[in-house]
Structures
1.
Amino acid sequence: MTENLRGKVAIAGVGQAGLGKAEGFTELEILAQAAHAAVADAGLQMRDIDGLATASVLAPMWAMPVIEYLGIKPAFIDSTMLGGSSFVAHLMPAIHALTSGECNAVLVCYGSTQRTSSVSRKVIAGVRRDFDPQPYEYPYEPLNPLSTYAMAAARHMHEYGTTRENLADVVVAARAWARLNPEAQRRDPLTREEVLAAKMVSDPLSALDCCMVNDGAAAFVLVRADHARDLPNPAIHVLGNATRVFARQGSSLPSLTETAAVASGQEAFRMAGVSPSEIDVAEVYDAFSINTILFLEDLGFCPKGEGGRFVADGGIAPGGRLPVNTNGGGLSCIHPGMYGAFIMIEAVRQLRGTCGDRQVAGAELALVHGNGGTLSSQSTAILGTASAV
Amino acid sequence: MGPQAEYFDHLARGQFRIQRCDDCASAVFYPRTHCPECGGGLSWVEPAGTGVVYSATIIRQAPERGGDYGVALIDLAEGVRMMARIIDCAPEDVRIGMPVSYAGIGSNADTILYRPGDAT
């Protein structure tokens, strides 16, 4: 019966901070900068925030220092940690909390300084080995998360004839969009040949098939739709959201070529009452080039196995058949550890019509798809303008 | 001793064992307290030792850091999938769909080795 919640909650404000390198700043500091920017964008004060959703790669009790730092006293707190999809998955619990009256304004926020932090990713990987053990994978030393995505790509090539050229076309399309986005971190021209010639890291994925490692913070504010109408920015409504997890480890997933995005997508579309063909712009979590192909298939934009051909030759680049990852994606725009909040923001900006050179003309319906872990968690959201409700 | 400790205890004694559900007969890997299909109790069984490569990758690493190495996912004949290492075969020559057979336990007693071919 989640269709009763369709459009009842809207995104009223968005904010980002510390994109790229936040030298000398802590995660909490750039998170707070993004949070204040989002609250101001919503036309609210921080004291109006009485709900919080957040998650951290590092700190298991993350909601508490965030509450303390921002000086808020939220009645609703969600710190569900599903990896990068978390900030898309935070939507539905927040919708329940807002529509039930448990709270009135939910701040969803994230910050990471993984690029400039003194705690290296190598140290983090070592700590995780002990604190978050995977004794049936770690001893084989997969370079995870990358190696699991690499094995998904290899399997997809085997089953469907997808090629490295198809993967490269995902990377080139992301770069073409990034070149239209002043915030994007990688804006140099890039060709298919350059991607194919890049250093192999975990076959068949090269260094250019992988997302960046950046600093960055992102936040957005959710309120009830009737409240959003009185706020300064156009309300961007949440029409559907669903999250699914089938397993944590790649070796335990039922399939590496068909993910739980099939289930999260079907439910999000059902709740929203729309179909993939109606979507104007899609922001799908591209931690690796294969992700875009898998999710376009799983979410129903093309049949299973056709993703490689769907993205080929500029299919998802500017001017292609479907605008995908219009900010340049995790591959070329920004990827600070967990990217879910950033795709939400790009979708909101597209629906507000404020994306400048990369604006998709007349965009009214956007799909956001978050992925987390090693293809482990999948959360799909459908967002729409007031005219789409 | 829990099922995880028992699994690695088997490996330390040179025995590779997986689990089988006492109720629904599903093969189970990795080792658990209850069957993830039906909640039933589990018993240890010796797998047939044959499987097929589901997928594989080569991690590229400078020679001074140990050089390239392969990681594979193997679908066992029993119907479960596991991460494993393939020996007696260059990582570049591992093919998806290739039959493999059990080849022993790694030197740290925490990995399972397979080699190409049907024969055990």
Note: Chain A has two domains: 2-118+214-236, 143-211+241-388.
2.
Amino acid sequence: MYVYDAFDRTFLQERVAEFRDQVARRLSGELNEEEFKPLRLMNGVYLQLHAYMLRVCIPYGTLNATQLRALARVARRYDRDYGHFTTRQNIQFNWIKLAELPDAMADLAEVGIHGIQTSGNCIRNTTTDAFAGAARDEIEDPRLYAEIIRQWSTLHPEFTYLPRKFKIAISAARHDRAATRVHDVGLRLHRRDGETGFEVMVGGGLGRTPYIGKTIRDFLPKEDLLSYLEAIVRTYNLGGRRDNIYKARIKIQVHELGAEAFAEKVEAEWRQIKDGALKLDQAALDTIADRFLTPDFEALPDDPAELATALANPAFARWHANSVVPHKVGGHAIVTLSLKPVGGPPGDCTADQMDTIADLAERYGYGEVRVAHEQNLVLPHVRQKDLPAVWRALDAIGVATPNVGLVTDIISCPGLDYCSLANTRSIPIAQKLTQRFADDARIADIGRLHVNISGCINACGHHHIGHIGILGVEKKDEEFFQISLGGKGNSKARLGELIGPAIPESEIVDAVERLVDTYLELRASPAETFIAAVERLGIEPFKERAYAPR
Amino acid sequence: MTSPLQRKLKISGPTAITANRLADGVVVWLTSGGAWSMAIAEAAIATTGEEVQRLLTLAHGDENTAVGAYAARVEVTAEGRAAPANLRERIRVNGPTIAPAA
């Protein structure tokens, strides 16, 4: 965990006081809506279909138990006893009253969290691997660099009014668990000739015009991270389009200029600033690294007796095989908590669940919790001998469904049930799919399969990179859904391919089931995953079956 | 540039004016008396562009009570009351179609 200093705490308190005054002036009529709207958005406050929505930033998806309890308290005091974890490792509260927002923000500020820069055309929360600091395939903990980016980008005066929002993701492991190739800037820490540096990708993104990011630098020395980012964002800020909101993201600029020409502009800018104040010397890196509290891990043996005994229980064994992965420290494990129960809204977590998870984090997990971009939570550091007790406790509160990475671990945007931009609902489709595929043994047999659902073309549900992507479209006040196949968001990211005309809401679950059945029938062996089968066979055999019985 | 209020409104049927209450975001409907009601059944129903324009002007003039006012097509019940005419407005009137996390 990164520990904020007195400067951070004072800044947050002042920001809450400022917002409290702005709200009071709006409610009294001293500020009009046109004046107030940009102020509330800068604090993460949206007005949605039914109420104000507060988006709270969780820097690089890392929380301590105290912060998670504070989120529970906000959910209980000011909202309706739950929050919704998002694909950018944040949390959203859907029902907060404007007059109570300053109090909610004050409660959050007490534990060092806020909604600043979770909206608006600025640099948003830098996201990363939910397994950071724990993964065995990691080169370094990427959160150090995410924190450096946070400090650089927070209230950056030059980048407060960009053409559009700007999202950065960073990965430092062999497997990309942060979807870096579909971000405005993706950073991949890797090793070359004994040194570590970044592959820099730009212009990735989903939405109405999806692109996979283009690599403009294979290897950027770590010391140049901030100056190079500054050069990229400055190039975008100066040249990005402001005439058309739909063409204002950096991906359009990169596409229109070409990656090579864009890179030349960045390099030209960078040459002028690379040896300036943004250079990260080792002392600067050490200063920030020193403020990260690393757990004092016990040296423990792998596969302790307690674990071996528990594995005789088929339910525990199924959960263990699905939700637990090895930790970089012997005798420990990384545990993913599924927020995708059968019939539940993906990513929702109740205040009571949050409190219990915070307790478990303190008791069994060195006090740390992570938010995964797949809308699940993670206990990153659990002793293997404690896994049976952790499982029982998680199961008791409904977050131990053994479906992580499987067909029912669905990413879904809030859709038309909450969102003022949506065309169709998406959560009910996810709920019906989890009910259709409720059998644990069946979904384990189907294996790894990512289903992503968006309720409109803005693609907050990441449908473009779902193995099965579902996009809601409205036709004459009826909900229809387009299906795409073959998308993926990992290091070999690819956009899914549309299989044909949109399907009525009443038929979409059947269509998805037919796609899954087609895979089961055609897979070369149980070891061939759904995505591997689609890549081998192409979409045609799936397309034929999805639309078959008419 | 033409402001939204100056643009000629195309009305395709019975229309009401809706917005979100400033204090808490609750969905509200403009009544014929110029007040805001949480009940769509109390909404003023307009059938001409001129009437919708007049109500919208009234609504936009009261942004300290309700914000983001717009014209929404409505259905008219046998009792002559407004009712939501599409899924979006049904959800705004009735709330999410799903139960939240339990």
Note: Chain A has four domains: 6-109, 142-290, 305-396, 411-546.
